[in-house]
Amino acid sequence: MTQEAVAWTASGCCPLCDAVVALRDTAEAGEVITCPECRSWLVVRSSDGSRIGFEAAPVVEEDWGQ
Ligand SMILES: [Zn+2]
User: Could you tell me the pLDDT band of residue 2, with boundaries at 50, 70 and 90?
Assistant: First the structure.
């Protein structure tokens, strides 16, 4: 039986709340993920092995037709 260790492949910091955002898979630039802390959308800006640079995703303005 194989013990599957949870090995975080890469991690970075949320630019908004400073939480550590870890990913199990390698991230590619342009990938969008959600911060587990503040629920903000983050775009992977750079991926250097285990270090990932995030930036806040541009807010998409939705027309709710108020
Ligand atoms: Zn955050």
Answer: low
CATH number for the domain spanning 30: value is 2.20.28.160
Dist. CA 13 → ligand 1 center (Å): 8
Report yes or no: 15 and 38 within 8 Å, Cβ to Cβ. Answer: no
Residue 30 within any structural domain of the chain = yes
Confidence (pTM)? 0.72
Find the 3 Cα to ligand 1 centroid distance in Å. Answer: 31
Q: Look at residue 33 in the predicted model and tell me its pLDDT.
A: 92
* Structural domain that includes position 50: 10-56
Question: Domain count of the chain?
Answer: 1
Gap from CA of 1 to ligand 1 centroid (Å): 36
Cα 34 to Cα 27, 31, 37, 53, 55: the distances in Å are: 13, 10, 9, 14, 11
* pLDDT higher at 14 or 66: 14
